[in-house]
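Recall the central idea of this unit: under ordinary conditions, the amino acid sequence of a chain determines the structure it adopts. In this exercise we apply that idea directly, starting from the sequence alone.
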Amino acid sequence: MDSFNDCLQRWVQERGRSLAIWSRGENRRLTFSNILENRDRWRRLLPRNEALRPVVLATGNSTSFLELLLALRLDRVPVVLLEPGPSFEHLAQRCESLGVARLLHTFEPGDRLGDGVRWSMLDLDAEAEVPTGAEILKVTSGSSGDPAAFCFGERELLTGIRNIQQGMDLESSDRVLVTVPLSHSYGFDNGILSLLWIGTPLILEPDYFPAPLLKAMAEGETTVFPAAPPLVRALAACVWPASSPLRLVISAGAPLTAQAAESFHAASRRHVHQFYGSTETGGIAFETRPGSPEAIGTVGRPLPGVELAIDARERIWVSSEANRIGRLGQSDPDFSVVGTGDRGRLRPDGRLELIGRVGDVLNVGGRKVPAREIERALSRVPGIREVAIVGVDDPGRGDRIVAFVVGEASAEELRRLPRFYQPGAVHLLEALPHTERGKLDRDRLRTLAEASE
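Accordingly, the structure predicted from this sequence is:
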């Protein structure tokens, strides 16, 4: 299979003068030939790295992100994908926890290379060992502990985007609007890899507000929009233009409620396609018929090239040639099969239903109840538009159910639920908190729940 730079060379030969990236925040439009030229310029500017030690790439959603990635890979340097964060100190702390000393970033201090990009070298006692074959390293959010860097070869990543292309029926004539971070697995796969493998031009939009997004869609002639549930909900409240070439709206990062999907369809006249993946495996499942009744409550069927298995504890296991090949700093076994952090079940029609996180089960009066099961029961209560629950330790009952609700929650209606679904406390919120990756921020909810005890 081709390398990243082989892919670029192919598009330069076939469509060198065609648009490859329009970075609206930078007011830059680059052709495939421009990217090749800029890659070679960066290669001359980068410090020598003859030991081929990994380099953190943390320049955000900019044209330099792709150019630097290709320049580093041309010299076979392993690249760690990382979101810049709010400051150099924050970025340096994350790099230290990973054991990576070399950084490309946009903060001071650092040696300025050009276009706002700087180079820094951290003074670490020891650097993490890179597993054999590791070329691109994706970093987890660290929301459940220290961040981890999972290792891939270019072959695995290009296999993953091939699976996505076949499952989503993507073509080089598509234009992809990117608002999610390119350093995250979702943005990297559906943005950078889509451009390199499929040839889809990218429209990089820095603004997360609905009005600028709709403007970017129109001006960029967008046909594909990878989004997260908070963006889908925000866009459902907008007045959409009468016509648009947008044909594929994708939601990932967390399950999208049926109500949110229906509201978006009512506003935009477009269905939202659920997409499920993980940092360790890339794309896993995709819903091709989101408007059908049987799709409700699922994240679709496995992508081509992906096989799923559910073990006795309902944990989801993924078999794919796109799976990670290791973890930074560890000597790992074979990862042709990888267990996700999610629990699920496969329906008879092959669709995957997510039922919670591994270990996200509450002990309610001695009965084991998945958090997602309680949320589904509460979501059927009239007046509740969105709901999330967490468990707070209760010495007498095991876990006390604390519900966070968007909408209204009638005490009388709640008392009609089975005893082990009834919340011990209900907090009304204007919106549920989400992480920067679009996932429900349960850590934040647990902090709120414990503070209210």
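The chain has a mean pLDDT of 91.
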